[in-house]
Design brief:
homodimer, 450 residues, 12 helices
Amino acid sequence: MSETFLIVGGDAAGMSAASKAKRDDPELEVVVFEQGRWVSYGACGLPYYVKDDIRDIEDLVALTPEEFIEERDIDLRLESRVTSIDPEAETVVAERDGTARKQSYDHLLISTGARAVTPPLTGMDLERVFTLHDLEDGKQIKRLLDREDLSRTALVGGGYIGLEMAEALHGRGLDVDLFEAMPHVLGPFGEETARVVEKHLQEQDVTLHLDTAVERLEGSGGRVDAVVTGNGTYEADLVLVGTGIRPNVGLAEEAGVELGPTGAIATDRCGRTSEPDVFAAGDCAEATNAVSGEPDYVPLALTANRYGRAIGQSVANDTLEPVGRIVGTALVKVFELEVARTGLLDEERIRGAGFEPASVSIEAKSRAHYYPGGSTIRVTMTADRDSGRLLGVAMVGEEGVAGRVNSAAVALHNGVDLDALEQYDFAYSPPFSPVWDPILTAAKVLNGKL
Amino acid sequence: MSETFLIVGGDAAGMSAASKAKRDDPELEVVVFEQGRWVSYGACGLPYYVKDDIRDIEDLVALTPEEFIEERDIDLRLESRVTSIDPEAETVVAERDGTARKQSYDHLLISTGARAVTPPLTGMDLERVFTLHDLEDGKQIKRLLDREDLSRTALVGGGYIGLEMAEALHGRGLDVDLFEAMPHVLGPFGEETARVVEKHLQEQDVTLHLDTAVERLEGSGGRVDAVVTGNGTYEADLVLVGTGIRPNVGLAEEAGVELGPTGAIATDRCGRTSEPDVFAAGDCAEATNAVSGEPDYVPLALTANRYGRAIGQSVANDTLEPVGRIVGTALVKVFELEVARTGLLDEERIRGAGFEPASVSIEAKSRAHYYPGGSTIRVTMTADRDSGRLLGVAMVGEEGVAGRVNSAAVALHNGVDLDALEQYDFAYSPPFSPVWDPILTAAKVLNGKL
């Protein structure tokens, strides 16, 4: 009899695992329980859907449920919520239409994703207050923008989703107030990078309120109309709250699956949890940071896809494939800026990982000095003072950032030091780069400081 | 008494060495002999100067002779031609205004650069036939375009300078015939990449003549008016010949300095030649390829700058700094295309370096499938069949190529295999990349074939 690979959650990690497993072993029974009605959707595209760069929400879906079921022969069960897992009996209980059924498995993948943090603010339950995490949120916001004559919107939280939404709402002709409780937006990108982004946001007429905690939301007739902060009250007829996400670990925890120090599900180098035959991947699970060597929680789409795929391969081939490590590479478009980061940038975290941080922040040109149309790229780089090992890079500029950050990511995966990085043979062509690539220049300047 | 560092040739390698040496040791006597009237000029910018994207040729000069002399305190002697080197006596003879003078040194750098190959064609001496290698060529071509009403131009040679000039001349409103003796343009970029470029050139109305050797140039009244090939005769009132460059090694050879297998000056890992206290760098010298481990000749600006700088550092500090290795990274803009390569792509060369080539060529999107405005990136990747080690990458597309190639370059410098490359944490953001970066996808597909 063929084995059963059971997957809880049908987004990136789950569907990657299902597809890879079924492709490598067509005899394998692959069952996916998904509580919603969508699978494998590009939540990263929601701001562009709200902005109307993308017209139909269906365009965000890479493959329809029918395609997974019919073309890939995956037993996909939509609107089915798994309510418990019994690792000892190797069974789960799933509910659909109020009916609970027990299902046994040989291998289990927990890919339950994450949810938007809902801050404990008075007024979060008012109408026209949204978090932005799944397709339904996006649909509701867009419907509202299409039908109502809104004018002032407030974004609570200056993370990358908040900034992408600022661009989207501004693109829809709305005034935007952005509230960030910390002194800078984009915390994980570092202060030097944040300053460039903040200047750009102001140039785009986004009203920035830094160091400004929102105290409560006010409304009338059940509908939001103002954001109250320590510095004043601001009108708003739409409020989007983007204050981070948390891994969905309740199901795993109840089943006795261990969580790691980040609060997400602990996994080993092949994606296995503390329970036998139980894997975890995606936004509910930890990954290992290649720079610090420690567990890390950076819930992003590529990691979910990669880890899911590797687990699918392990299950189908009865091997143990390493899922790989992360270096925390992230990239975001903020109006006309490309903003990227990779590795460790936070001093406290660097010290916690046993390094002594040294850093520089430089400006370089995106093109040869004589080639028209160039702009400035700011590169911030950190290294370990003793060993010279590269620890992290952040970059921001109007061009030439998006592709470039990956070269730093590869260097981080390989644990290279600045002596090596300085001497890499990078591409030079006047329309695309100065002779010394901005990353080489940063490495040279930082190395000179060590 | 302070030591003398003598440099023969004042372009990228020479002036980088001079500047770095003087900065690290202000007591050092740094003497540069340059036979021309310019130093440190961006020859890579000439096509854009001819195109008129850059108005003044002075804009191509990073620093003027006066700046080197006055601000950097370098004893720069323009229009001074070194006619011989005596490594035993540690002297050179330099001529200026017909007067020869002997100059002794403690350390010598030969950075005599390269010259354009002049093919042995009848008619090469006709008026309006140019090679394109130095500022004077560029000035003459531009003056001609500005003053004369030309209509048909012929480019002989489909290397990257030929293609950049095709764009420039087309931008000036001229018809362009491009003649390439080999079956494809851009030989070192590989056939798959070349095909994309060739299609694009044709879409831009450049008339391509592949597999077409030019037999002679014809003219009347001493001025060129046609290009004669085995396939026919083509009118041309301007002919640019770009059939490669050769290292200027005559001076070194006569001094008994050893050349390497490529015909350029052989150097060790610190840029030293076979003679004591004699270094060589830039377009006259070899470098070590980090993939093959063998001497290589890839005369490009960054290498010249890097090697010159390291040698300047060695001389000033009485240390031996490694100059670093190359992986043959190159990047060129061809009309709307970004075209890049790095590593080993040629099967024969790969076998010669002891590897067994396996390769794929894939198409990927430059953005998330749902994000508007994306285009196609073609990635061609080679690896060693046995070890899975990455050997080379070529890429071409309308966006997202220029920055991306450096990630492959870093991977090559570190000798990574496809198992590792597949699992790197690359940046994903819908406006800039699909979830799986095109390089990751190529690695995955190629790894599946091994």
